[in-house]
Amino acid sequence: MSRGDDYTRVARLFSHTRRNFSNEGQCACAGSSMSKTLSAWLHITDKCNLRCDYCYLPHVHANMPVEIGYAAIQATVRSALIHHYPQIKLKYAGGEPLLNFSLITELHCYAQYLTKQHGLTLEGVVLSNATLLNSEMLAQLQALDLRLMISLDGLGIAHDQQRSYANGCGSVDKVIHGIELAMAHGLVPAISITVSGRNAAHLSEVVAWILKRDLPFSFNFYRENDLSSSFDDLKLEEDKIIAGMLAAYKVIEENLSKRSLLTSLVDRVNLAEPHLYSCNTGSAYLVFDHQGQISKCQMQMDKPVAVLPIKDPLALIRADQTGIQNLSVLEKEECCFCEWKDWCAGGCPLDAYRATGRYNVHSPNCVIYKALCPEVIRLEKLRTSQKLS
Fold first, then answer.
1. Is residue 75 a contact partner of residue 122, using CB atoms and an 8 Å limit?
2. How confident is residue 32, by pLDDT bands cut at 50, 70 and 90?
């Protein structure tokens, strides 16, 4: 079936939904994120062929029904219109979303139709481990203008020791094959590197591999959760993490990228522009699980705020006073007089809560942030100087 046929089919099946959407409502609430994009995580399956030690999901082996997917997209569009967001970003995730690939194509085709009808810009990304990628999938991703983010935590054992198959075998060879296959098809994936105590000493190796292929990438720190807390070697020991990150920065300095470094080299830190919140959780972010439950953050899907169908899930997310509270950095103790407060915004609120039982305190990774931020600025200065010379 051609893309045009898909649009025709979706228009016929869902033309009746147009009357359910309107531009009524108020602007984004004061004090919320100034993002122009409303992001929605679509957890289209809980199934996964890997068993990553830091994963926060129980893997109950269930797929999202297509009706739930349609309802999630409809609800996201309604909230975008009510709160005057001009752009929607959909993140297709799992589990491993490629295990339910037909639903990705079905839902994104519908999302394209619906956002076009309401004059909204649409962005889509598939968050994958890449082990199941094939040429047919890549062709469909390109046809639907879907981006691809792939997890790669290292080369060899540095990756395999935290991202193995259910039978204990390593996955790195399949991941690298998937990345190279995507590049061969002209689809440049972004690489997500989860930094933990296990792989910190080997970050420089994977960074060199990524830079050689001129791929965009980002570092994301391991976040302890109830399912991973027994793995003590994953924890972020400050000296070990700083040393590993600085070694990776040395490789970056020797192979400066054409891309800006300010938003990708220190976990949640964004050094490109000042901001009050570390992320859009609680203000411009929705998470739908495979059952249609709606949460503030993908790491708190066990604490849903609402369930589909619902007219405006974003309003309920913003009003909720339970679960994660994403406070302004100005409300966080110890942050007020810090020179980096406008760039890290106090770090991930879930990290702070797990460490202290409070949301109004800074990240337990504060020392790591302070050690790394000056180096990122130095690297960016070198990069821009090289670009101008």
1. no
2. very low
